[in-house]
Amino acid sequence: MSRIGKQPIAVPSGVTVNTQSGVFKVKGPKGELTVPFNPDLTIREDNGQLLVERPSDRQEHRALHGLTRTLVANAVKGVSDGFVINLELRGVGYRAKLNGKALELTIGYSHPVVIDPPAGVTFAVPEPTKIDVSGIDKQLVGQVAANVREVRKPDAYHGKGVRFVGQQIALKAGKAGATGGKGKK
Predict the structure, then answer these.
(1) Strands, DSSP E only, in 5-78?
(2) Has this prediction a pTM greater than 0.70?
């Protein structure tokens, strides 16, 4: 048995689930999500918990067991609590602001970079150097946060750029560290 696949998924109050052939629908206070899954697997509700079961120990079923359980758990958590990814800007003059729903970044280019959020994702700027990307779909929130970071990845020499909060950047030594001091070649 898959260690992840056999774990039950707790369904919080206020969340309704519906399973039809190959489609799992979950509705909660934050919204509604649909997760397609392999119809060979079964998702059943038992005492306020969801269980994902596989019909056999074939390689295909074993591979899909843990994946399906994780996708369903993320959907349940998304409609009840939601997901937030925090980003921070490092660099002199780097700042972010909201322009309507769009995120406007001033990050060292000759022009501000404007990023429109896709449906289901919202931006928040609690401070000029902090960005919160939030939504109910974990994959979409992560992809949008990665796209924002991609606009100006952290520099390897100074650490300037857009990074995830808590992300450690291994800085390179630079010219002085590479030659061993002044004047030596």
Answers:
(1) 9-10, 16-20, 23-28, 31-36, 42-46, 49-53
(2) yes
Alpha carbons 1 and 18: distance in angstroms, whole number: 25
User: pLDDT tens digits, residue range 69-92?
Assistant: 999 999 999 999 999 999 999 999
In a shared domain, residues 55 and 110: no
Identify whether 132 is part of a domain: yes
Compute CA distances 34 → 6, 42, 75, 157, 167, whole Å. Answer: 21, 15, 8, 43, 32
Check if the beta carbon of residue 69 is closer than 8 Å to that of residue 9.
Answer: yes
Q: What is the pLDDT of residues 37-77, one digit of tens each?
A: 999 999 999 998 999 999 999 999 999 999 999 999 999 99
Distance CA 43, CA 163 (A): 38
The DSSP secondary-structure symbol of 154 reads: P
Q: Is 134 helix (H, G, I), strand (E, B) or coil?
A: strand
Query: Edge-to-edge strands of the sheet including 42-46?
Result: 9-10, 49-53, 42-46
Q: Which of 48, 80, 112 is the last residue of a domain?
A: 80
Nearest-angstrom CA–CA distance, 115 and 103: 5
Percent of residues in the chain assigned helix, strand, coil, to nearest 5: 20, 35, 40
Domain extent at residue 118: 83-164
Identify whether residues 74 and 89 lie together within a single domain: no
**Chosen domain end from 50, 80, 110:** 80
